[in-house]
């Protein structure tokens, strides 16, 4: 197994940088996105097998356009420039780039004029996705045109001596149906990658790195019950066993049975060293009288830091903190606006925690996407329900209990939510939707039960389909299923006499109600 085989994706502000990185990994070659202005020495020291230069919205001839270190063209590492990346490379190699006569957006057929390993097995006409206003106007002496369209004479190029390929189109998008093959050809035929990267090899490498980083030191990991912190804890446990000390805070805002479940899973089943803290009363006390959602978040976040710190202080010799930071938390800011001086910033799940506590961070999943984290969890042997859980926000039920949070409302909410989840699982809907939960509204409505008039709380059900949580649509659950959930909630949960289903989309609504 070759653990060192990886490809760098330099990001020039492209909306597709993540997609490129993911395509490379789908071809079993590890990839990492780096800011476009990374120094050639730093890159060379990390010895990637190939470098992909991403697209980007700027024009290469604009004064403040993002640039890369010109020395990377001297490293002898195969490079593939896509769209802006092609233009950057071609400019550096002596070509002229200027606005195209006709901007090209959408499907085009390119004609391969020079058979090349890059287009091996693809035929002479290839359907591709174009999205550009600028293009390479003439090729310099040593650049060979490999493919063209009637309006884009240099749709693909190669340099004679520098191992640089440029594509004016986007092989990473599905609208280029054979794009994966082109990227695969680059990886295997040009870069010489063997394509042996798998989740198992990721684990092996991560374990080695974690051990090297922490030595014999102890690592604290805050469990939340969510997917990312659970997977990072299992990965750490595999690497360092009892050097890992997990802390789980019961903030009184967890779902039904959640505290007990975490203790069973991580303490009893996985045999991790688990420190549990019941701080429910402190959290509920601090939330008394608070109705404004952002205030709730601030109070909960601040108190979490205090409680966590108190518990961490009791653990001797712990200088490391494991965080389940994943790629979407790592905001790439090497945008054209930020220019070459921009750096990658990290947004931690628990805001401000590491800086305040002065720990060294262990973040072994920083480069992974969410679905890769789930695959990692499965590879580590975690339970299906743990790995495929819906996200649960840090402020927990506090932001699903609209208005003031109190124990009575939380009790109703917990029961209603448990029924919803149980029925979704029973009907095989849980894994098909992105997030599902109950919300308790701060109003009472009139109902009739038997001969009695009731005046009780309203429960709203929120079930959404989403992949990125930036946009969402309400799930078209069968009416019978909705009816069953509503009927069970009204019959089984004391204090609720009405159930409504939220059919708003995001945007303009959000997924959470607060
Ligand atoms: P919205 O409501 O913004 O939610 O559409 C998008 C996703 O983010 C989660 N969410 C949070 N997660 N702390 C978190 O850890 C928060 O304060 C928070 N607010 C929303 C929400 O559950 C959904 O998955």
Protein architecture, described:
This protein has helices spanning 17-26, 40-45, 84-92, 179-190, 199-214, 227-240, 258-269, 280-287, 293-313, 353-357, 370-379, 384-387, 407-426, 479-492, and strands spanning 6-11, 30-35, 50-53, 79-82, 96-112, 125-138, 143-148, 156-159, 164-167, 218-223, 244-250, 273-278, 318-322, 330-331, 345-346, 360-362, 435-449, 452-465, 473-474, 496-501. 31% of the residues lie in helices and 26% in strands. Strand 11 (244-250), helix 7 (258-269) and strand 12 form a beta-alpha-beta unit. The radius of gyration is 27 Å and the shape is globular. The protein is built from 14 helices and 20 strands. It has a 9-stranded mixed β-sheet, sandwiched between helices. Helix 5 (199-214) packs across helix 11, helix 6 packs across helix 11 and helix 13 packs antiparallel against helix 14. By secondary structure, it is an alpha/beta fold. The chain folds into 3 domains: 6-190, Class I glutamine amidotransferase (GATase) domain (Rossmann fold, 3-Layer(aba) Sandwich), CATH 3.40.50; 199-387, Rossmann fold; 400-501, GMP Synthetase, Chain A, domain 3 (2-Layer Sandwich), CATH 3.30.300. The protein binds xanthosine-5'-monophosphate. Residues 297, 391, 393-395, 435, 469, 506, 510-512 line the site of xanthosine-5'-monophosphate. Xanthosine-5'-monophosphate (XMP) is lined by residues 297, 391, 393-395, 435, 469, 506, 510-512.
């Amino acid at each position: 197994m070759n653990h060192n085989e990886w490809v760098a994706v330099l990001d020039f502000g492209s909306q597709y940088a993540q997609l490129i990185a993911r395509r490379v990994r789908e071809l079993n070659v590890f990839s990492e996105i780096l800011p476009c202005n990374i120094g050639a020495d730093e890159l060379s020291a990390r010895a990637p097998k190939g470098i992909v230069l991403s697209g980007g919205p700027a024009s290469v001839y604009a004064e403040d356009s993002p640039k890369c270190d010109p020395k990377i063209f001297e490293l002898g590492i195969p490079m593939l420039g896509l769209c802006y990346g092609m233009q950057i490379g071609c400019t550096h190699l002596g070509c002229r780039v200027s606005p195209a006569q006709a901007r090209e957006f959408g499907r085009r057929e390119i004609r391969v004029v020079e058979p090349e390993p890059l287009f091996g097995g693809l035929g002479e006409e290839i359907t591709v996705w174009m999205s550009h206003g600028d293009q390479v106007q003439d090729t310099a002496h040593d650049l060979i045109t490999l493919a063209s369209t009637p309006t884009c004479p240099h749709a693909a190029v190669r340099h004679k001596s520098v191992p640089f390929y440029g594509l004016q189109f986007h092989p990473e998008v599905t609208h280029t149906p054979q794009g994966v093959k082109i990227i695969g050809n680059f990886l295997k035929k040009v870069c010489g990658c063997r394509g042996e990267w798998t989740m198992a090899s990721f684990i092996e490498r991560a374990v080695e790195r974690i051990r090297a980083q922490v030595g014999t030191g102890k690592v604290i990991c805050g469990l939340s019950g969510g997917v990312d912190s659970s997977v990072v804890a299992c990965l750490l446990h595999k690497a360092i066993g009892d050097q890992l000390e997990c802390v789980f805070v019961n903030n009184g805002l967890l779902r039904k049975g959640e505290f007990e479940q975490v203790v069973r899973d991580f303490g009893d089943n996985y045999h991790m060293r688990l420190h549990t803290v019941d701080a429910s009363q402190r959290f509920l006390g601090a939330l008394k009288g608070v109705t404004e959602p952002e205030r709730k978040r601030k109070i909960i976040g601040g108190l979490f830091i205090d409680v966590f710190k108190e518990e961490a202080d009791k653990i001797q010799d712990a200088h490391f903190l494991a965080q389940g930071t994943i790629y979407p938390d790592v905001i790439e800011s090497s945008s054209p606006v930020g220019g070459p001086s921009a750096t990658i910033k990290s947004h931690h799940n628990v805001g401000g925690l590491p800086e305040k506590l002065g720990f060294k961070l262990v973040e072994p999943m920083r480069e992974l996407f969410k679905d890769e984290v789930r695959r990692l969890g499965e590879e580590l042997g975690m339970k299906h329900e743990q790995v495929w859980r819906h996200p649960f926000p840090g402020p927990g039920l506090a932001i699903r209990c609209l208005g003031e949070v109190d124990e009575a409302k939380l009790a109703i909410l917990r029961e209603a939510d448990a029924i919803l989840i149980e029925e979704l699982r029973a009907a095989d809907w849980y894994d098909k939707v992105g997030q599902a939960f109950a919300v308790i509204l701060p109003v009472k409505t009139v109902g009739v039960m038997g001969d009695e008039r009731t005046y009780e709380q309203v429960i709203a059900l929120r079930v959404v389909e989403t992949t990125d949580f930036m946009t969402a649509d309400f799930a078209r659950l069968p009416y019978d299923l909705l009816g069953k959930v509503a009927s069970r909630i009204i019959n089984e949960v004391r204090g609720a006499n009405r159930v409504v289903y939220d059919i708003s989309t995001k945007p303009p609504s959000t997924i959470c109600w607060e």
